[in-house]
Amino acid sequence: MRILKELYTISLEEYRHCSNRAKSIENKKDKAKLNTLAYFNGLFLLIYSLVILINITYIILSFFYGLYILLTLLSFIPLLGMLILIRKIVYPKFKGKFLE
Predict the structure, then answer these.
(1) 87 three-state secondary structure
(2) What is the domain partition of the chain in residue ranges?
(3) Dist CA 41 CA 13 (whole Å)
(4) Residue 2 CB partners (closer than 8 Å, separation 6+)
(5) The model scores a pTM over 0.90
(6) Contact 45, 11 (CB under 8 A)
(7) What is the C-alpha to C-alpha distance for residues 24 and 51, in angstroms, rounded to an integer?
(8) For residue range 24-38, what is the model confidence (pLDDT) as tens digits?
(9) CA–CA distance from 53 to each of 23, 42, 57, 98 (Å)?
(10) Mind telling me which residue stretches traverse the membrane in this protein (predicted)?
(11) Residue 68, SS3?
(12) C-alpha to C-alpha distance for 2 and 57, rounded to whole angstroms
C-alpha cells in the first residue's frame, strides 16, 4: 500500500513542480517541454486513480457478490503493474532524454 501511495505523491509533486516551473520560464521551447511533462504526470494521475478506484470497488463488491467479481479483479492487476512499471522505469529515462 505504501508503494501505491508513494507513487501517487511523487507524481503529484512532479506535476506541481513542472507546471509551476513552466509558468516562470520565458523560453517557449523549454516551457513546452515542462508543460508536456506536467500533462504526462496529470494524465498518469488520472489513469492511476481510476485503476485504483476500480480495484477498490471490485474488492468491496466481492464481499457481496462472491468469487466472480474477485476474478475480474485479476484483469486489472496487470494494468496496475504496467502503470507502476511505466512510472518507475520508463518515465525517468524518458524525462532524462526529453530534457537534454
Answers:
(1) helix
(2) 2-98
(3) 9
(4) none
(5) no
(6) yes
(7) 33
(8) 988 888 899 999 999
(9) 32, 17, 6, 31
(10) 37-61, 67-86
(11) helix
(12) 19
Residue located via cell numbers 513542480? 17
Q: Which cell numbers in the block locate residue 71? A: 476474478
Q: Which residues contact 83 (CB under 8 A, 6 or more apart)?
A: 44, 47, 48, 51
Please report the pLDDT score of residue 9 as a whole number: 93
Among all chains, which residue has been given the C-alpha cell 532524454? Answer: 97
Contact present, 51 and 83 (Cβ < 8 Å): yes
CA-CA distance, 60 to 53, in Å (whole number)?
Answer: 11
For residue 39, the one-letter residue type is Y
